[in-house]
Design a protein that fits this description.
The protein is an all-alpha fold. The model has no long low-confidence stretch (mean pLDDT 85). It is built from seven helices and no strands.
Length: 151
């Protein structure tokens, strides 16, 4: 059984994938069994993220997802605020920190625990900003199927 926070994160990921496939919000709510308030939060987060991407590409046509501001991501507001307080402005800033071998991890930042750190990593993985972690994870899961991430 997933916690409320894990379920909300899973719903956000699935809704993002469904919306990218062109599925209407009403159908997303039906498929994921979302309440109207849950759907409202998902719609708000996805539209904030899409607006940020549109603004970024309008201002800087050669910008990539590396340049997306954290303040406009699909992450929850408290997490976005904690990351800004820690000095991160873009998704690329976080990806560079995670690639640094001397960086102790996101969990060491104040107000960010393992669940929030996983949310950030999943967002970076969605934009292909994590260096090599998906390949390693797939290889480990192929060798040890019991370690497969079933979220």
């Amino acid at each position: 059984m997933l916690s409320r926070a894990d379920q909300a994160h899973l719903n956000m990921q699935e809704a993002r994938e469904l919306r990218a496939a062109g599925v209407a919000y009403r159908e997303i709510a039906r498929r994921l069994a979302l309440t109207s308030n849950q759907l409202r939060l998902i719609r708000k987060a996805l539209s904030r993220s899409k607006a940020a991407q549109s603004r970024l590409h309008a201002a800087y046509p050669h910008a990539t997802s590396h340049d997306l501001p954290i303040s406009r991501s699909v992450l929850p507001s408290g997490l976005r605020e904690r990351l800004r307080e820690a000095g991160y402005r873009t998704l690329g800033d976080i990806a560079q920190s995670l690639d640094d071998p001397g960086f102790p991890g996101l969990e060491t930042l104040p107000g960010i625990g393992p669940h929030r750190a996983n949310m950030v990593r999943d967002l970076l993985a969605h934009f292909d900003l994590l260096a090599g972690t998906d390949d390693l994870r797939a290889e480990v899961e192929a060798i040890f199927p019991e370690l497969e991430d079933r979220r």
